[in-house]
TrEMBL record:
<protein>
    <recommendedName>
        <fullName>Dual-specificity RNA methyltransferase RlmN</fullName>
        <ecNumber>2.1.1.192</ecNumber>
    </recommendedName>
</protein>
<keyword id="KW-0411">Iron-sulfur</keyword>
<keyword id="KW-0963">Cytoplasm</keyword>
<dbReference type="GO" id="GO:0051539">
    <property type="term" value="F:4 iron, 4 sulfur cluster binding"/>
</dbReference>
<feature type="binding site">
    <location>
        <position position="137"/>
    </location>
    <ligand>
        <name>[4Fe-4S] cluster</name>
    </ligand>
</feature>
<feature type="binding site">
    <location>
        <begin position="189"/>
        <end position="190"/>
    </location>
    <ligand>
        <name>S-adenosyl-L-methionine</name>
    </ligand>
</feature>
<dbReference type="Pfam" id="PF04055">
    <property type="entry name" value="Radical_SAM"/>
</dbReference>
<dbReference type="InterPro" id="IPR048641">
    <property type="entry name" value="RlmN_N"/>
</dbReference>
<dbReference type="GO" id="GO:0070475">
    <property type="term" value="P:rRNA base methylation"/>
</dbReference>
<dbReference type="InterPro" id="IPR027492">
    <property type="entry name" value="RNA_MTrfase_RlmN"/>
</dbReference>
<dbReference type="InterPro" id="IPR013785">
    <property type="entry name" value="Aldolase_TIM"/>
</dbReference>
<comment type="function">
    <text>Specifically methylates position 2 of adenine 2503 in 23S rRNA and position 2 of adenine 37 in tRNAs. m2A2503 modification seems to play a crucial role in the proofreading step occurring at the peptidyl transferase center and thus would serve to optimize ribosomal fidelity.</text>
</comment>
<keyword id="KW-0489">Methyltransferase</keyword>
<dbReference type="GO" id="GO:0019843">
    <property type="term" value="F:rRNA binding"/>
</dbReference>
<keyword id="KW-0808">Transferase</keyword>
<dbReference type="InterPro" id="IPR004383">
    <property type="entry name" value="rRNA_lsu_MTrfase_RlmN/Cfr"/>
</dbReference>
<feature type="active site" description="S-methylcysteine intermediate">
    <location>
        <position position="366"/>
    </location>
</feature>
Length: 395
């Protein structure tokens, strides 16, 4: 493990507060900003390339804009990513950043490289969308911390900017290139409950003048905010994953409580609509995330129920071995159990993968995105109380 402390930059936040932060602005917003300065709108795409493709924040390094405009931008604008509180780079190539966002809370971002050992191989960045999460899935450590607030577009896209920046050190600006190849909106928070900022940030991920990622390489993962799934299909063309985790309503109500509001029948209908009704050329399947909890959702019967539930939905299933966190009420299914479960899905014709656990040495594995949340929901306190009660009951 290589833990690198980074000094919190209060100056950076001050700068962002006084000037207009261009990070996170859409192309249209940036064009309007340049018009308001008496400039031509095309300046927006020039500056976007500097910011997102070359990681440049200093306007004086943007060599294709005039000296006069460089000075003007220096006076009124800035490019300020969220402050990195600290970062950890794992031996296996996994990288984790903890950001301190306005208000002092911490959120995490994790980069997981493919296991192919290639320097320019697949690198998937798991991005957070909220500080904490209001949804309280019973197996999720983020959910136990409660919810503080939504992240802004610049705080969301800034996570990707910083991850790419980590590969750009000591490289001249115009020779830099973005290394993150895939993004999953699967970190802290439920992205569809922070809809507009998430869609704005994903638009920059796809925009050729910004990060230019292919739409198949940007995935939003939802626990099932059904009405927003229909909106998403209309507003942006990205891949969709569903945190399913249970094959029947009774169990899902317990594991993913939003299921009480949007039960499986509605969720699967919305997922089918996402694949078939809107832009069918691009949305070929849904990824189903299923955390394997020993003795809870991992029996043969559950696997057969899952086959039945997904039979008409083009889907790929990703089984996630549970990563226990302190006082978690569940354990991880055995490898044999996970393989037996996977075998049933494979036999039924599903493509089913088992997620490799990565970055264990830096607590970056799925479900371990532990931040420090100023909990407006008081859930963290209630959770602590319930643990104490459980402990005194056993004494
Ligand atoms: S699993 Fe996702 S939606 Fe559920 S509590 Fe955790 S972060 Fe929120």
């Amino acid at each position: 493990m290589n833990k690198i402390p980074v000094i919190t930059s209060a100056e950076q936040s001050d700068q962002a507060a006084k000037k207009v932060n261009l990070l996170g602005m859409s192309k249209d917003e940036l064009s309007a900003f340049f018009v308001s300065l008496g400039e031509k709108p095309f300046r927006a795409t020039q500056v976007m390339k500097w910011i997102y493709q070359f990681g440049v924040t200093d306007f004086f390094e943007m060599t294709n804009i005039s000296k006069k405009l460089q000075h003007k931008l220096h006076e009124v604008a800035c490019v300020v990513p969220p402050t990195v509180k600290y970062k950890e780079f794992s031996q296996d190539g996994t990288r984790k950043w903890v950001f301190e966002v306005a208000g002092g809370s911490l959120v995490e971002t994790v980069l997981i490289p493919a296991d192919d050992g290639k320097q320019f191989g697949r690198k998937t960045l798991c991005i957070s969308s909220q500080v904490g999460c209001a949804l309280d899935c019973s197996f999720c450590s983020t959910g136990k911390q409660g919810f503080e607030r939504d992240l802004t577009p610049s705080e969301i896209i800034g996570q990707l900017w910083v991850a790419n920046q980590s590969y750009m050190e000591n490289v001249p600006p115009t020779e830099r290139e973005n290394r993150v190849t895939n993004v999953v909106m699967m970190g802290m928070g439920e992205p569809l409950l922070n809809y507009n900022p998430v869609v704005a940030a994903m638009s920059l991920m796809l925009d050729d003048h910004a990060f230019g990622l292919s739409k198949r390489r940007v995935t939003l993962s939802t626990s099932g905010v059904v009405p927003k799934m229909y909106d998403l299909a209309k507003d942006i063309d990205v891949a969709l994953a569903i945190s399913l985790h249970a094959p029947n309503d009774e169990l899902r109500n317990e594991l993913v409580p939003i299921n009480k509001k949007y039960p499986l029948k509605d969720l699967i209908k919305a997922a089918k609509s996402y694949v078939y009704d809107e832009n069918p050329r691009h949305k070929k399947h849904i990824t189903i995330e299923y955390v394997m909890l020993a003795g809870v959702n991992d029996s043969d019967e559950h696997a057969h129920q899952l086959v039945d539930l997904l039979k008409d939905l083009p889907s790929k299933i990703n089984l996630i071995p549970f990563n226990p966190f302190p006082h978690a009420p569940y354990g991880r299914s055995s490898n044999n159990r996970i393989h037996a479960f996977s075998h049933i899905l494979n036999q039924a014709g599903f493509v089913c993968t088992i997620r490799q656990t990565r970055g264990d040495d830096i607590d970056a594995a799925c479900g371990q995105l532990v931040g420090q949340v100023a909990d407006r929901t008081r859930r963290a306190k209630k959770w602590q109380e319930s643990i104490q009660k459980r402990q005194s009951h056993h004494e």
